[in-house]
Amino acid sequence: MNNARNNANAVGLTTNDIIKNDSSDPSPAASGLLAGKVAFITGAGRGIGAAAARLFAAEGARVLLAARSEDQLKAVAEEIRASGGVADHAVCDLADPASVRGAVDRAVELYGRLDVAFNNAATGQPPGPLDELSGADFDRLYAVNLKGPWVAMSAEIAAMRATAGRGAIVNTSSVGALMANPQLPAYGALKRALNSLTESAAATYGPEGIRVNAVAPGTTLTELLFEWDERSPGTVDALNARTPLGRAAEPREIAEAAAWLLSDRASYVTGTVLRVDGGMLA
Question: Are 121 and 111 in contact (CB under 8 A)?
Fold first, then answer.
């Protein structure tokens, strides 16, 4: 844990900065990257999801934040509104399909449409070889990291069809899905399955004007990374040593890639798993 925190300090961040994910965003502008769009974001209470919520709102979107922790959601939504943005929240557990569908419905109820969705929420696994992972842990990972995005995409596509008539979806994958991942084997395998689901959805719904892509973050300063480093000290240092840029990403940097993929500036991009990894897999 201390190594991860020290890594954060090495790139000019305090622990509070990381948890708040650069909350000093500018006020939303009518000419922003996502101006006029309604955005739905899962895992929006912290980490990459919270950074995305702040960024999307600053880029002109009306955002609906979804996650399990209502306290975290309220804090991020209030921060966005205080900066002049439009935000609300819905408590959502990706392991509960009804709550996922309800959260998507809430976005349409509040804002009248759905244009873009960022399926970012995920859960981690205890690091270690695959034979040491319990069946219960694997089932939990499957429910949240693969079935959850499948349910979310199904609901989002239905909402886009019924309202905006077109749209864009981005799923959060991982560079750990693009290579052997002996310390997080189930996490990597399910994220790789999510890549396949992303590509299949892109091929299926492209003719309707619905684009589907994924971002594959490398080492990123989130609580999941800190938890991994705490259980396996030295993890962050080892990952940074494999990264040409020599550091971990701030959550905002991953959110920037997602925002571009969701925007009209990426209008001819679909079925892509975009690595945002500091060159780790170059």
Answer: no
pLDDT in tens, 257-280: 999 999 999 999 999 999 999 999
Domain residue ranges in the chain: 2-276
Residue 279's nearest CA partner among 235, 247, 236, 238 is 247
Assigned architecture for domain 2-276:
3-Layer(aba) Sandwich (3.40)
pLDDT at 231: 85
**Which one of 111, 187, 205, 268 is the catalytic residue?**
187
Token readout for 118 is 């960022």
**Residue 51 zone, left/alpha/beta (φ > 0; ψ -120 to 50; rest):** alpha
Query: CB-based contacts of 22: which residues, under 8 Å, 6+ apart?
Result: 51, 54, 250, 251, 252
Return the structure tokens found at 264: 């009209």
Read off φ and ψ for residue 167, nearest 5 degrees.
Answer: 170, -170
| CA distances from residue 30 to 33, 57, 166 in whole angstroms, order as listed | 9, 11, 21
Nearest 5°: phi and psi at 157? -60, -40
187 is an active site residue: yes
For 190-236, what is each residue's pLDDT tens digit? Answer: 999 999 999 999 999 999 999 999 999 999 999 888 888 888 899 99
